[in-house]
């Protein structure tokens, strides 16, 4: 029999084009300036820098601006050249960059939060500035008047922020693992619902306004796709990382989701593939397969003289189960993991 020749997998390696150096401390955020071959960066060393590519091919700072507090995040709108910078002291400072990107003019300051600003979104269509802070507050301001329009207190420090312009829904992920959906009006907001599916904190959010799908990444190593548009409430869990999900990006034209993990892996998900919906997770004080108590069930632990176990959830049926595995060679030990599925991986490639 002739040996079958297997084609080699296509391996693509990124090519280093340029290294931009100069900040003395952690760079918290950087964005590319479209059509200008430039980069804007904000850093813990309190600097805002605009780097432009010179004829020599090197990037040199055309703007070096020192802020009164460490810069934690920013939002840049290329159409208006409006730069909003979040600071460690809770202030949001707004600037307009000149056409040649050699000057930044102060516009206004927002006293948005009581502590470090964690995320900023500028919505040009509504002239709104949305922000979250370590004070567990979500706030939105009018960028024309600088007036605070409203706020909402989240259950934990927010770690993800997305906004849908058409419906004026804002999505807030926090360190408790919860995603909160609010409907914003001009001066008030309405709580629509909360999504609870992660066992760890939400680390990233990504919104597809066309398919009306929200993606959330978490420190529990998973990504959940929330189908808000077509099948409201549908949730699909994607398992492809061995460490927390660091960032998410979505390509609408190819319907591909890209997730980056703390394990060093980058997973590309084809979201055109049909996947099974994640079941609702059930609550229980003991394993719903073997009835052994979980570690918080002190009464059953005392009565049965057994050590409490950690709780997990079956990805197939949603039952609360423990993580005790059978020990060889004895075959009389109960298999306490739900047998309908253990941890079915999704089709990332």
Automatic annotation (TrEMBL):
Q: What is its main location?
A: other
- Specify the FYVE-type domain's residue ranges: 281-323
One Gene Ontology CC term in the entry: early endosome
Q: Where are the WD repeats?
A: 20-51, 195-228, 238-279
SUPFAM superfamilies, per this entry?
FYVE/PHD zinc finger, WD40 repeat-like
* UniProt-recorded Gene Ontology molecular function terms: zinc ion binding
Supply the name of the protein.
WD repeat and FYVE domain-containing protein 2 isoform X2
| Species for this entry | Pteropus vampyrus (Large flying fox)
């Amino acid at each position: 029999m002739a040996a079958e020749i297997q084609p080699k997998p296509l391996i693509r390696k990124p090519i280093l084009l340029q290294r931009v150096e100069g900040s003395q401390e952690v760079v918290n955020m950087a964005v590319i300036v479209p059509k200008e071959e430039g980069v804007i960066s904000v850093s813990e060393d309190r600097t805002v820098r605009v780097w432009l590519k010179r004829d020599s091919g090197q990037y040199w700072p055309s703007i070096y601006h020192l802020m009164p507090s460490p810069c934690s995040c920013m939002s840049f709108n290329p159409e208006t050249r409006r730069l909003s910078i979040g600071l460690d002291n809770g202030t949001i400072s707004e600037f307009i960059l000149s056409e040649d990107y050699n000057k930044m003019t102060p516009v206004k300051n927002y006293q948005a939060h009581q502590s470090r600003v964690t995320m900023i979104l500028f919505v040009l269509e509504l002239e709104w500035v949305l922000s979250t802070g370590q004070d567990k507050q979500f706030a939105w301001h009018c960028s024309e008047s600088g007036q605070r329009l409203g706020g909402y207190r989240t259950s934990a420090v927010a770690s993800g922020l997305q906004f849908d312009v058409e419906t004026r829904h804002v999505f807030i992920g926090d360190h408790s693992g919860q995603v909160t959906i609010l409907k914003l009006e001009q001066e008030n907001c309405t709580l629509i619902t909360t999504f609870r599916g992660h066992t760890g904190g939400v680390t990233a959010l990504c919104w597809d306004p066309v398919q009306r799908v929200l993606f959330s990444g978490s420190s529990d190593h998973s990504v959940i796709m929330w189908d808000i548009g077509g099948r409201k409430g549908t949730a699909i869990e994607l398992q492809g990382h061995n460490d927390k999900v660091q960032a998410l990006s979505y390509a609408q034209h190819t319907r591909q989701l890209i997730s980056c993990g703390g394990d060093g892996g980058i997973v590309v998900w084809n979201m055109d593939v049909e996947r099974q919906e994640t079941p609702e997770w059930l609550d229980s004080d003991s394993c719903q397969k073997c009835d052994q108590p979980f570690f918080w069930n002190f009464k059953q632990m005392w009565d049965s003289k057994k050590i409490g176990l950690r709780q997990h959830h079956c990805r197939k049926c949603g039952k609360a189960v423990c993580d005790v595995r059978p020990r060889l060679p004895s075959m009389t030990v109960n298999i306490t993991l739900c047998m309908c599925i253990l941890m079915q991986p999704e089709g990332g490639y």
